[in-house]
Amino acid sequence: MTVQLNHTIVAAHDKKTSAQFLADILGLDVNPQYGPFIPVAIPNSVTLDYMDTEGAITPQHYAFLVSETEFDTIFARIRETGLTYWADPGHHRPHEINTRDGGRGTYFDDPNGHVLEILTRPYGSGDGGGSGDGGGGA
User: Fold this and answer.
1) Where are the beta strands (DSSP E) in 20-104?
2) Mean pLDDT for each 10-residue chunk of the chain (138 residues)?
3) Fewer Cβ within 10 Å of end Cβ, the chain: N or C?
4) What is the pairing mode between strands 85-86 and 115-119?
């Protein structure tokens, strides 16, 4: 049996705005509403299904593996929109990217406080597998 992630629900205070934010940053489309969800389809056949919720939202982490070219395009959008980005998930190194495993990565927040990440190499995939948090400020 092959197990694949099909979808996950993303809590939001405004599902339409939140779904559009992700789609705009990553260069994806927002799909038509399905029940209470606004889905954003990721090219690997996983959907992030945005659902309105009231009250506090517990931030989650969503990481997107992208090509070097896609990183450049997405990172340009992050900078153009004035979003703060970090080299680390704890938000200790603002306005920097990381170079873990010989790739590039950065973290930024969505409107609900979810931590989004783009990275060009899976962690542990190469160049010694070390932390490689070495800079790459923009």
Assistant:
1) 37-42, 46-52, 61-65, 85-86
2) 94 98 98 98 97 96 98 98 97 97 97 97 76 50
3) N
4) unpaired
